[in-house]
Amino acid sequence: MKPKPGHLGPKYAEQFKDSSIVEVYHHRPAYPDEAIHALLALITDEPRTILDVGCGTGDLARRLASEVERVDAVDFSQGMLEKGRTLPGGNHPHLNWMYGRLEDVVLHPPYALITAGESLHWMEWEVVLPLFHHILTPHGYLAIVERRTEYSLWDDDLRAIIPRFATNKEYRPYDLIDELEQRHLFQKHGAIQTRPVSFIQSGEEYIRSIHSRNGFSRERMGEEVADIFDEEVRKMITPFLQGGLLSLSVVSEVVWGTPKVLPPVPVHS
Predict the structure, then answer these.
(1) Do residues 49 and 70 touch, judged by C-beta distance below 8 A?
(2) What is the C-alpha end-to-end distance of the chain, expressed in Å?
(3) Phi, psi at residue 257, to the nearest 5°?
(4) pTM of this prediction?
(5) Is residue 269 pLDDT above 50, yes or no?
(6) Do 250 and 32 touch, CB atoms closer than 8 A?
């Protein structure tokens, strides 16, 4: 099997343990309600249990917990879990926070749904996809969830400076679903894109949200470089501020399907 793209390697995943990312992660926009409803609609089996992998601060898990019997929310960043417990819904009795690498933790299957919100790309695909295959209920799905803001007038300028400041110099555009299907690890069954939802935040919160992304940990950039980056972004967005606020539009994509077991390696006598 061909290796994962280099920019998705462990040394870049580790940045999500950095305190500077944990501290600003809540400035990311929330997943639209439509995405949460779509995830719940995928559950048709009993028990109504969910495994949320790479849960971070529980942006999905905290909103799903009240609707199901149990959500096991797994992440390898202790800081993310500690932050998640303090956020709305973080202490729900149906939410079970679990610390560790998904590849190593002891799970409690079966699960009627496995959710991966902006996380699966960091994991060992040839390990976790076959694992998912075995721990899902007969009609269970793996749902891969992404969120993004729609095009803003300063986006082109922002993209132009990212290569200069980002610490992940190996980054290349990629399509996660294509990567998994090419490796025969996932079979897509369906997908939806939610309707755009308005999201308002201050210009400073928007800048902080960038530091929750891959390659923009302040620890790894260094404070001086991070401050220079912030000032450049501040200049870009200033013409679009109204009372210090930015008006953004958020959409989410949910792709669901069946995780696959690796095909056996032929043995030649």
Answers:
(1) yes
(2) 22
(3) 180, -165
(4) 0.94
(5) no
(6) yes
